[in-house]
Amino acid sequence: MSDLSKKKIELEHLLQNPDQFPLVVMTDHLEDPYNFGAIIRSCVGFGARAVIYPKDRQVTLTEGVVKASAGTAHHLPLIRVTNLAQTVDMLAYAGFWIYGLDGSGRESLPHFEPQFPCVLIAGNEHRGLSPLLKKKAHALLKIPISANLESLNVSVATGVALYQFGLKHNKI
């Protein structure tokens, strides 16, 4: 995957230049390569400037992820970190607002006014956001859906949220 190294940046660069990264997505231990790829694709489509993902217990950047991203993984900085909770702390300290997608969140996405720069955290397909990341978030956002459906797929929910954030930030 040498092509992916063209867009490689270090977390330190993001922390020192928050104005260059108004919208960042973080994935919380995704297991499905197609979800990861679809999220990357939505990030490019809706104006996110980077994706942060964990080193362990997360699908890696495989050819399947790149294929699911429709090649957009080559056009976006993908930052691999050791510890998501510590990374969230560093991002918050650097001035990023931290928002988590969560079906039991208090804030309804359509009515929410995000502050920028921000990080949108998408949780694991089965467990959702980890409890520690929920605690560290400035707000937990829910997407109103039909009572006949328990939840949306993580990549679909992230795409919906990115569309809303892009509209609010005038990036789409």
Please describe what this structure looks like.
This protein has helices spanning 11-16, 33-46, 63-68, 84-93, 131-136, 154-168, and strands at 23-27, 50-54, 78-81, 97-101, 107-108, 118-122, 139-142. The chain is of the alpha/beta class and 172 residues long. The chain has a seven-stranded parallel beta sheet with strand order 3-2-1-6-4-7-5, with helices on both faces. The longest helix is centred in the last third of the chain and has 15 residues, at 154-168. It is globular, with a radius of gyration of 15 Å.
Distance between the termini: 30 Å
Largest sheet: 7 strands, parallel
Please give the order of strands in the largest beta sheet. 3-2-1-6-4-7-5
User: What is the β-strand count?
Assistant: 7
The rough form would be described as globular
Helix/strand structural class:
alpha/beta
The topology string of helices and strands comes to HEHEHEHEEEHEH
Which terms would index this structure?
single chain; 172 residues; alpha/beta; 7-stranded parallel beta sheet; 6 helices
Give the gist of this structure.
Helix content is 33%, strand content 17%.
Helix-strand blueprint:
Blueprint: H1 11-16, E1 23-27, H2 33-46, E2 50-54, H3 63-68, E3 78-81, H4 84-93, E4 97-101, E5 107-108, E6 118-122, H5 131-136, E7 139-142, H6 154-168
Parallel strand pairs: 1-2, 1-6, 2-3, 4-6, 4-7, 5-7
